[in-house]
Design a protein that fits this description.
The structure is a single chain. By secondary structure, the chain is mostly helical. It has ten helices and no strands. Helix 1 crosses helix 3, helix 2 packs antiparallel against helix 3 and helix 7 crosses helix 10.
């Protein structure tokens, strides 16, 4: 699609494309977005065609305003001390990051100490767990185990941390 800067000679499509680009830049000014999030946000108003949105996304990618890989890496870096790998992947997938990209990012760059995270969550739930572990009721231990399992940690890792510390 040709881009015409002369306002008087702009076609309806040119005007719509310009408006869509401005809106997209406004949307990503305060918070980073994935391509999917931005596309969904632009579709909400229903005044842009799919072709206009595609052109806008292409423009933003070309000028590196949106980059799903960078978004995912920043998100992981920000939340790696809070969430398990499973939960991080789930949250990023919901934001529109493709599974293949997630797998390559987690295979290459990311190191998360899940045992330390489990211990952190365990002590948050039960601050005196390691002092009174032997005196705890099985039902109470099961509640803690279920809590950690819901946080996205594997059963084996949870048991290792609960028994070895």
């Amino acid at each position: 699609m040709a881009y015409n800067l002369d306002v008087k000679k702009m076609s309806k499509d040119d005007w719509s494309l310009t408006n869509c680009k401005e809106r997209a830049i406004y949307i990503i000014t305060n918070y980073s977005k994935t391509e999917k999030q931005l596309r969904d946000k632009l579709k909400q108003g229903k005044k842009y065609t799919d072709e206009i949105i595609d052109e806008t996304i292409k423009f933003l990618k070309k000028h590196n305003f949106i980059n799903d890989e960078d978004f995912a890496k920043r998100f992981i870096e920000l939340h790696k001390n809070t969430y398990s790998i499973k939960v991080l992947k789930q949250k990023l997938y919901q934001k529109g990051i493709k599974k293949e990209l997630l797998d390559s990012i987690f295979d290459d760059d990311i190191e998360i100490d899940e045992e330390a995270l489990i211990k952190k969550h365990l002590l948050k739930k039960c601050p005196d767990y390691f002092e009174r572990e032997r005196d705890m009721e099985p039902k109470e231990k099961q509640k803690i185990l279920s809590y950690l399992f819901r946080k996205g940690f594997s059963y084996d890792k949870i048991l290792d941390v609960m028994k070895n510390n």
